[in-house]
Each structure stands twice: as structure tokens, then as C-alpha cells.
Specification:
Blueprint: E1 2-5, H1 7-15, H2 20-29, E2 34-37, H3 39-50, H4 52-58, H5 62-75, E3 77-78, H6 92-104, E4 108-110, E5 127-128, H7 130-137
Parallel strand pairs: 1-2, 1-4, 2-3, 4-5
Helix pairs in contact: 1-2, 1-3, 2-7, 3-5
């Protein structure tokens, strides 16, 4: 399953080993999910995970973050961006998630903030929570 993971999913995976977001990353490790990622989105993942506030909440060190980012880089499919839409989402940072999904042919955008991506439904982009994707994969 080809998915674009919103940054909040990556952070949630770090915050809880028992949640659906963490399970999604384990599915990536097993080859059940192919994360699609543009350079800008990858840099955002790393920047947010490296923030002191995030690291305090997750208990991870900068070395832990670097290790996970290296592992993610090894399995993620890079997406070149050619802008296909005009801004349509309330949060400008979400636009890069949408563009990665459109340009990479993602089956879905995975986010804890599904409502933020609702305008993208008009473009035929599927939006799902981590829990919804986990249920689909466990069928």
C-alpha cells in the first residue's frame, strides 16, 4: 500500500509504541506499506522529530531520530514534485503532503487531522487515520 504519512503520524509513532501510528511504521519495515515522501516532507519529519520539545515528549535522542530517519530514507519512495494544484488547504504545511500524494500516486494520505485534508477529496485523494489503515491491512 502506497501512502503519504502526515508528520503528525510520524510523531505519534514516536510517542507511543502501542498505537496505530507505530504499527504503521512496523508495517513499513515488513514491506506492507511503501511510504511516499518528497524532500520537503522528509526534512519536515526530521525537523519536527529533532525539536527539543518533541524529544522530551518521546524520550528519544538526536541519535535515535537520525537512526529512524536513515531507516525511513532507505525504504521510502522519493517523490519529485511538480505542483499540480493551487493552495487549497488551511495549513500551508499540509500542501506538501497533498502534493506528495498527488505526484506519487498514493492510495491515501494518512493523518490524525483528516478534516484538514477534506478539500483534497475533490481531487480524488483518499484520506484516512492510522487506525483505518491498520484495519485495512489486518483484513
Amino acid at each position: 500500500m502506497r501512502l503519504v504519512l502526515d508528520t503528525n503520524v510520524i510523531v505519534a509513532a514516536f510517542r507511543s509504541r502501542n498505537g496505530a501510528s507505530n504499527l504503521l511504521l512496523r508495517f513499513v519495515d515488513r514491506g506492507m506499506v511503501t511510504p511516499l515522501c518528497s524532500t520537503a516532507l522528509f526534512v519536515e519529519y526530521e525537523a519536527v522529530l529533532s525539536r527539543e520539545k518533541t524529544r522530551k515528549a518521546t524520550g528519544h535522542t538526536l541519535e535515535d531520530v537520525a537512526g529512524v530517519m536513515s531507516a525511513l530514507a532507505a525504504v521510502a519512495e522519493g517523490v519529485d514534485i511538480s505542483f499540480r494544484t493551487r493552495p487549497m488547504l488551511a495549513d500551508a504545511a499540509d500542501e506538501m503532503v497533498l502534493e506528495a500524494a498527488l505526484n506519487g500516486g498514493a492510495e491515501a494520505i494518512v493523518s490524525h487531522n483528516v478534516k484538514d485534508f477534506r478539500p483534497a477529496l475533490k481531487l480524488g485523494v483518499s484520506i484516512a487515520t492510522p487506525g483505518e489503515i491498520v484495519r485495512r491491512l489486518n483484513r
